Amino acid sequence: MFMKFLLTVAVVALIWFGFRFAQRLAMQKQAPRDQAAKPKPRFTPDPDGESVRDLVKCPICNTWRAPNLGPCGREECPQ
Ligand SMILES: [Zn+2]
If you measure from the C-alpha of residue 56 to the centroid of ligand 1, how many angstroms do you get, rounded to a whole number? Predict the structure, then answer.
C-alpha cells in the first residue's frame, strides 16, 4: 500500500519536472528567433534637427523646456 503511494508521488513528480524541462527547452528555442525577427528599435535623430533640441533651464521654476515652447505659465517666468 505504501509502495503504491510512493510510486504515485514519483510519477507525478516525474511528469511535473518533465513538463518544466520541456517548457524551458521551448523558451530557449523561441528566444533567439524572436530577437532575430524583431531587432530592437533604435533612436535615430532626423538630420533637420527637429527631433533633437537643446533645452533651456528656467531660473525661476527650475524646469527644462524647449525654447520654442514659450513661457512655462508662471507670471515671473522670463521665457
Ligand atoms: Zn519658468
Answer: 10
